[in-house]
Design a protein that fits this description.
It is built from no helices and 36 strands. By secondary structure, the protein is mainly β. It folds into three domains: about 1-155; about 165-290, Chondroitinase Ac, Chain A, domain 3 (Sandwich); about 295-390, Immunoglobulin-like, CATH 2.60.40. The chain has a 20-stranded mixed β-sheet that branches. It has a five-stranded mixed β-sheet with strand order 31-36-35-33-34, with no helix packed on it. A hairpin with a 2-residue loop joins β19 and β20.
Length: about 400
C-alpha cells in the first residue's frame, strides 16, 4: 500500500537544514492554497512518488536559500497538478525532468537546470538567472503568461525554446548580467534562441544604407530560421553607444562573420528595435542604418514601351506602410487620387494592386503630397511636382 503524507495547513510548514524526500511509492498531498517552504537542502522526489492536491485551490512550493529541487520520477507530469513552484533562494539547482504548470523566479542568484524543464502556463522572472547546463528549457504557454522583471534583471542565460501558440513568441534571454531579450511578432511551432556576448563579425558589403553593426552581442536562432516567416524585435538594453548617427536597425546573416543583410526597422520603442522585414537567417544583430529620406520621383511615363516610370514611385515609403497618406493634385489643386497607406506598384513584399490607371491622366504637371511617420510619432510632409508625359 502506498504511503500518503497529507500537508493540511494552518500555518506554513518550513523544512530547514534538511533534505525533504518524497520516498518511492509515497504520495505527497497538499491542501488547497497551502504553501510548503523548503529552506536549505531541498526537495527530492523519488522514482515512483507523486504529488497531489486535496480539493480546489492552488498550493505552492517555495524553494528557498540554497535548497535544490530534484525529480527522479521520469513519468510523472507535474503540469497535471495545479501547483506553483517558486525558486526563492540564492544559488539553486533543479535536477531531473520537470513539466511544471507555473514557475516563478523571485530572488537573486543563479538557478541551474540539469535536465529538461517545461513550463506550460506561466513563467515569471522577478529576480535571478535561469541557466540550462544540460537538457532544455521550454515554455509552451501563451505569450501573456511569460513575464519579465521591469528592471530586466532576471532571464535565461543560454538556449530558450518557445513552443507556445502561434503568434507572438517571447524569448526572455540575456548574457553577462544583462537582459537581451527577443520577440518574434508572428511565428509558429517550437523555436529556440540564445544570445552571445561577443561581436557577430558581420561584413557590411554592397549595402550603402547600413552604416555600422554593434559589437556587444548577437542572437542565434537554434531552429530553422527559413521557416519562421516573422519579423523580430531585439532588445537594445545595455548596448554601448554607436559611433555613427542614424536609425537602429536589425541585421541578419547566415553565419558569424558572414555577409550582413539589413532588415531595417519599423515600429520599435526605447526598449526594442523591430525589423521591417521578416527573418530568413539564423544570426541576428543590431546596427545603424542611414536615416530614411522619403523621395517622390518626379516623372510618370505610362505610354512608353520601356516599362519604366509607368507608375508613381516614392522611395522609402515602405518604411511607413501603416501610417502614410499620398495625395495627387492636378494643376488647379483638384484632388485626382488619394491613397491611404500607399505602397509602390513594384514593391517586392507588398505591391500596390489597386488597379489605378496612370495612362488615363492628362499630360502635364501634378502635385504629389506625402504625409508619413511612425505610428504614435511625429507626422512629416513632403511634396513634389510630378510631370506626366505621354510619348509613344
Amino acid at each position: 500500500m502506498k504511503a500518503i503524507l497529507r500537508v493540511l495547513l494552518l500555518a506554513i510548514p518550513t523544512f530547514a537544514n534538511g533534505q525533504f524526500i518524497i520516498s518511492s511509492g509515497a504520495i505527497l498531498t497538499l491542501s488547497p492554497d497551502a504553501t510548503m517552504a523548503i529552506s536549505t537542502s531541498g526537495v527530492t522526489i523519488a522514482s515512483t512518488s507523486q504529488l497531489s492536491i486535496a480539493g480546489a485551490g492552488r498550493p505552492s512550493i517555495v524553494v528557498a536559500n540554497s535548497a535544490s529541487l530534484v525529480n527522479n520520477n521520469a513519468s510523472f507530469d507535474f503540469s497535471a497538478v495545479d501547483l506553483q513552484v517558486d525558486l526563492n533562494g540564492g544559488s539553486q539547482i533543479v535536477t531531473g525532468n520537470f513539466v511544471l504548470k507555473d514557475l516563478r523566479l523571485s530572488s537573486p542568484g543563479p538557478k541551474t537546470v540539469s535536465g529538461n524543464l517545461t513550463i506550460t502556463n506561466s513563467l515569471t522572472f522577478e529576480q535571478g538567472i535561469l541557466t540550462p547546463s544540460t537538457g532544455k528549457i521550454l515554455y509552451t504557454g501563451k505569450s501573456n503568461g511569460l513575464t519579465v522583471a521591469s528592471d530586466a534583471s532576471s532571464y535565461v542565460e543560454g538556449p530558450f525554446y518557445n513552443g507556445g501558440p502561434d503568434g507572438e513568441k517571447k524569448f526572455p534571454i540575456g548574457v553577462n548580467n544583462t537582459f537581451a531579450g527577443a520577440v518574434l511578432l508572428d511565428a509558429s511551432g517550437e523555436i529556440g534562441m540564445q544570445v552571445t556576448n561577443s561581436a557577430a563579425g558581420f561584413i557590411i558589403a554592397d549595402n550603402p544604407d547600413l552604416l555600422e553593426i554593434n559589437s556587444d552581442r548577437y542572437w542565434e536562432i537554434l531552429t530553422d530560421a527559413a521557416k519562421i516567416n516573422s519579423r523580430v524585435g531585439l532588445s537594445t538594453n545595455g548596448l554601448n553607444a554607436f559611433t555613427t548617427s542614424g536609425d537602429v536597425a536589425v541585421v541578419q546573416s547566415d553565419a558569424v562573420g558572414g555577409i550582413a543583410k539589413n532588415l531595417s526597422s519599423q515600429g520599435g520603442d526605447e526598449n526594442y528595435a523591430v525589423s521591417r522585414y521578416k527573418v530568413t537567417s539564423p544570426f541576428l544583430a543590431l546596427g545603424k542604418e542611414a536615416k530614411v529620406k522619403v523621395v517622390i520621383h518626379d516623372l510618370i511615363t505610362p505610354f512608353t514601351i520601356d516599362a519604366h516610370n509607368d507608375f508613381l514611385y516614392i522611395e522609402h515609403i515602405d518604411h511607413f506602410p501603416d501610417n502614410n497618406t499620398v495625395t495627387l493634385l492636378d494643376r488647379w489643386g483638384v484632388e485626382v487620387k488619394r491613397w491611404i497607406n500607399f505602397t509602390n506598384y513594384d514593391d517586392q513584399l507588398n505591391p500596390n494592386n489597386d488597379g489605378f490607371d496612370f495612362a488615363k491622366l492628362s499630360p502635364g504637371n501634378y502635385i504629389c503630397i506625402v504625409e508619413f511617420g511612425e505610428i504614435g510619432g511625429k507626422t512629416e510632409k513632403v511634396s513634389q511636382m510630378v510631370t506626366v508625359l505621354k510619348t509613344n
